[in-house]
Specification:
alpha+beta, 8 strands, Bona fide RidA/YjgF/TdcF/RutC subgroup, 2 helices, two-stranded antiparallel ribbon, 130 residues, RutC-like_sf, six-stranded mixed beta sheet
Length: 130
């Protein structure tokens, strides 16, 4: 069975409706769409630390809604707009995942949203397996 989260009412910058699910659960897996440091449809002010914290927290909020915990995170993808943000991002990452660090990839890329970081996660929990 596939369950989609956030297909109704998800908003991007400027309040535009987003054409994808915030997350999709299937057979014990949860795939959380890329999250930016957005609150109420707007990118938060602040540097890489504040933006990284918000982007990760947005992922965790979606996971919690779906019934998953940090210990269920298998993999995270991180997109930074500048390689110089890498060390600062790592400090934030460690503050969230010191006990259960997931596998991770981090790359530098242009983002379609005007922010410094975007993250997505993949989770697994056998209690949700069909």
């Amino acid at each position: 069975m596939i369950k989609r989260y956030g297909t109704e009412g998800s908003e991007g910058t400027g309040g535009q409706a987003l054409p994808f699910s915030r997350a999709v659960a299937a057979d014990g897996w949860l795939y959380v769409s890329g999250q930016t440091p957005m609150v109420d449809g707007e990118i938060i002010d602040g540097g890489i630390v504040a933006q990284s914290t918000q982007a990760i927290q947005n992922c965790l909020d979606i996971m919690t809604e779906a019934g998953f915990g940090k210990e269920d995170i298998v993999h995270m993808k991180v997109f930074l707009t500048d390689a110089r943000y890498f060390q600062s991002f790592n400090k934030v990452f460690k503050s969230f995942f010191a006990e259960h660090p997931p596998a991770r990839v981090c790359c530098v890329a242009d983002l379609v949203v005007d922010c410094m970081v975007e993250v997505d996660i993949t989770c697994f929990n056998s209690k949700f397996k069909s």
